[in-house]
Design a protein that fits this description.
single chain; Uridine Diphospho-n-acetylenolpyruvylglucosamine Reductase, domain 2; Alpha-Beta Plaits; four-stranded mixed β-sheet; binds D-malate; binds zinc ion
């Protein structure tokens, strides 16, 4: 990457205060994420303490033509915070904007700065007798700002939606350094274009979110999960329908777990293996409510067994068993359990219309078997949302080279399958650089053109996360 001029950085550091501009070893924690991915060589990290500091940084960068890549907890999956290589840039960390500004149980909201972690939000909501529903494995590191930027989802989307559904208002610094305070706490507001929704999922290309009003939901004092061994993917639709109807509104997670990932997590992380059923796939589901859910879960399992939708099941009877099941789920990502090989692998964040999930998973598996027989292929994740993380990766050193020789061919073949099924390549991880050049066929040129025009309105000089998210104009022409 190219660093801004020394004088620019010296003046910026003087205005923002000590510890605000980091380079070299001091910047490493921001430059490399937990999976070992780097945002670029020798980045300049700027860490303002407050909104005024963010605004000042953006204003100065615009004047000097310096590109700004905003960073939250550095847990992104789509290379959305890689620094441009062809122009001066800074990594703008929101880590020091880490204050919970207010918890308002009577409004059912919380107002927090962008650098607060998802777990801190969940805990503050719980302390006030409420719940912040979005949740995923990186909860302890991922921040509100990054989650808003990517419209993150996770395990509870099936009931509560993704970030888009859980943010009522935002404050953002715009490309000219102006601060837009759109932190409204309204559940309904039909006054014109929803600018907040434009910023959510915009991956730092339209503005830098500095704080947000988050929606809270009723606490669910009673929660119980079960792991169901299923006879095959073909039962998924019927099992999901049964779960939704018999849980009477309390179904808050419906996740797919493959046997191969469970075994790997048990081996690597020492979790207890919950079931030994010999089936390829399992469904992990959770019911949560303000009143006991045990009878509903028992009835659901009984009905599922009667209809041959499961071959075996285990119910978490204690908090430890509950933690074991969800610990397995949190670690099921190859990012956690196939460290070393996951860098080479093909990882998908696909969503498909709900009625076609099984067809999609088997479609990917048969393409992988034909094109990349040396690789392991499995799907896991948020199957109740139609959001399946398919993974194809080598799992031993000898397979790496032959796999790399066919990876692009398989990628193109799977992308084509996703588009043909009216799916999306990104359900919750964003586009970043990873998908930018693959995403074009998913939308018409007209739709991309409208996005380019919106980008030009918000960021006429193109300083905000340049080169990310938007494919080049008219990608399908
Ligand atoms: C998950 O569902 O585990 C996350 O999206 C992370 C991942 O896909 O690796
Ligand atoms: Zn996920």
């Amino acid at each position: 990457m190219t660093a801004p001029a020394d004088l620019f950085l010296t003046e910026l550091a003087a205005v923002l205060g000590s510890g605000s501009v980091l380079r070299g070893d001091d910047a490493t924690g921001y430059a490399v994420d937990g999976r070992g991915y780097s945002v670029g060589d020798d980045p300049v990290v700027v860490r303002p303490r407050d909104v005024a500091g963010v605004a000042e940084t953006v204003r100065r960068c615009r004047e000097a033509g310096v590109a700004i890549v905003a960073q939250g907890g550095n847990t992104g999956m789509s290379h959305g915070t890689m620094l441009p290589v062809d122009r001066p840039s800074i990594l703008l960390s929101l880590a020091r904007l880490d204050q919970i500004l207010s918890v308002d149980p009577d409004r059912w909201t919380m107002t927090v700065q962008a650098g607060v972690t998802i777990q801190a939000v969940q805990e503050a909501a719980a302390a006030a007798g409420r719940r912040f529903a979005p949740d995923w494995g990186a909860r302890g590191t991922a921040t509100v700002g990054g989650a808003i930027a990517t419209d993150a989802g996770g395990n509870n989307v099936v009931r509560y939606g993704n970030m888009r559904d859980n943010v009522l208002g935002v404050e953002a610094v715009l490309a000219d350094g102006a601060v837009w305070d759109g932190r409204r706490a309204l559940r309904k507001d039909s006054t014109g274009y929803d600018l907040k929704q434009l910023l959510i999922g915009s991956e730092g290309t339209l503005g830098v979110v500095t704080s947000a009003v988050l929606k809270l939901v009723p606490a669910t004092a009673h929660q119980q999960s079960a792991l169901l061994a299923i006879p095959g993917l073909a039962v998924l639709s019927e099992l999901f329908e049964l779960a939704q109807t018999s849980a009477a509104g309390s179904l808050s997670a419906f996740e797919l777990l493959p046997d191969v990932a469970i075994d790997r997590v048990v081996e690597v992380f020492g979790h207890a293996k919950p079931l030994d059923s010999g089936t390829d796939y399992f469904v992990l589901l959770t019911l949560a409510s303000s009143e006991t859910v045990e009878p509903r879960l028992a009835a659901l399992l009984e009905a599922a067994a009667k209809r041959d939708l499961l071959v075996d099941a285990v119910v978490a009877g204690t908090p430890e068993q509950e933690a074991n099941l969800w610990g397995i789920r949190d670690h099921a990502s190859p990012t956690a359990c196939f460290v070393g090989f996951q860098h080479h692998g093909l990882k998908l964040d696909t969503a498909i219309p709900l009625d076609r999930v099984a067809e999609f998973v088997t479609g990917v598996q048969s393409r992988a078997a034909a094109i990349a027989p040396m690789a392991l292929c499995y799907g896991f994740g948020h199957v109740g949302d139609g959001n399946i993380h398919m993974m194809v990766l080598p799992t031993d050193d000898d397979s790496v080279e032959p796999w790399l020789a066919v990876r692009d061919e398989l990628t193109a073949s799977i992308d084509e399958l996703v588009f043909s099924m009216a799916g999306t390549l990104s359900a919750e991880h964003g586009i970043g650089l990873l998908l930018r050049d693959r995403i074009g066929p998913q939308k018409s040129d007209l739709e991309w053109e409208l996005m380019h025009r919106i980008k030009a309105v918000f960021d006429p000089d193109g300083i905000l996360n340049p080169g990310k998210m938007l494919p080049p104009r008219a990608p399908n022409a």
